[in-house]
Amino acid sequence: MSPRYVALVVAAVLVMGLGVYLFVEVRAAPAPVTASAGRTPPPPPAPREEAPAPALDEPKLPSPTVGKPFTATRPLADIRVNGERQIRLGTTDLTQAPGDEPKANPRLDAIMDEANKAYDRSEFDDAKAIAGKVLTKQPGNIRMLRIMVSSSCIDGDVAVAQKYYPQLPKFDREQMKARCDRYGVTLTDPPQ
Description:
The chain is mostly helical and 192 residues long. The protein has helices spanning 3-28, 106-120, 124-137, 142-155, 158-164, 170-182, and strands spanning 77-81, 84-88.
């Protein structure tokens, strides 16, 4: 080996060693705090008290409502009639009486979650069936309208997609139009 190569190797080792040394020193020493123009640095923030995490084995019960007894609802039933899959929603009414304030409806939320899960599993017929049942009770439910339009576009069912598309708000229509275009389905906006 020529002295030139030996010198390059030694220089490379020194540079590498110096880099490691600087890295270790910078990581070990905290940065100095400097006061500028006579100002004192702000005090460190006080540690926040964290709320204790709920125990995982304790079930979260719904809060009781005044004047209304607690009644259990039936779960979703998945049955077959003449070989065709039928999804039943149970006996709970999903609509609100006129004049009532909108209340949280865990039953409706569970049903809509089932529609979302079916959509996520690419079970578009099931997702449309569940969404269709909800839409018979709540025709303006945007979440279920989106599932109906999107599932129909993926399945290539232009008629169903176009039926529910005009019922969506403008922002959602724009999103659904872009999504359906990817699947070769062109949706037309309602007349203004």
